[in-house]
Write a structure and sequence with these properties.
68 residues, mainly alpha, 3 helices
Length: 68
């Protein structure tokens, strides 16, 4: 199944935040999720194993929290 909506950039696996007019949309769950995803290193975003992804995200978040 394909669609016309552009949800990913072409070259670096980042998600695209949809255009919006409402101020409250900026703080919505879906927009914040996209921002968090885009802040992950590309090496983590490109993982194909669910287990490896979980492990690397957890390690990354602990590292970020330890060195703000």
């Amino acid at each position: 199944m394909t669609h016309e909506l552009n949800t990913r950039s072409k070259d670096d696996s980042q998600l695209v935040i949809p255009d919006h007019n409402a101020h409250f949309f900026v703080k919505s769950f879906s927009v914040n999720d996209v921002r968090e995803w885009n802040q992950l290193p590309k090496s983590i975003r490109d993982l194909t194993s669910h287990y490896a992804f979980q492990k690397r995200v957890k390690a990354h978040l602990f590292s970020v929290a330890a060195h703000p």
